[in-house]
Amino acid sequence: MSNIPTANQEAIETVRDLIKGIDTAMLTTVTEEGLVSRPLKTQEVEFDGDLWFLTMADTDKYEEIQHNPNVNVAYVGKSYVSIRGTAELVRDRAKIKEFWNMAYEKLLETTSDDPNLVLIKVKADTAEYWETGSKTKMVKRLFSKLTGKHSDTEINKTVDL
């Protein structure tokens, strides 16, 4: 077997590097009225194509994912990253305990044994990211994009995961 990374592995590594250290993501779900976004804490695991979030089963996002598992997860850090994927609701007590910490106890006002706790696993399909660089560079890129004038600077890339 070759040690040369595949395009898929390279894409996953790129996204992993871009979202590493960003604690909060915006999870967007589909409702009957349209799209809804809310902040969630990303679990501290190495991104391998899946993202993990902890929530309660008696929330709107839980119901929304049951009806339509298509989601988007957005990160803002040293770059902007938008990940499109499919969400799955996972009731795995061992995995919940693995991710649990005292911050959740205060935030969710419960313990890791609460049967209402559930994990959201997002299997990433594609990720789009924008390299920011300096603010001046970012403004210049944005301006050229808005005015329609051609720029040799690539503003963003999309990778299949």
UniProtKB/TrEMBL annotation:
Question: Which Pfam family would be a valid example here?
Answer: Pyrid_ox_like
Q: Protein name, please?
A: General stress protein
Question: What taxonomic lineage is listed for the species of origin?
Answer: Bacteria, Bacillati, Bacillota, Bacilli, Bacillales
Residue ranges occupied by any General stress protein FMN-binding split barrel domain in the UniProt entry: 10-151
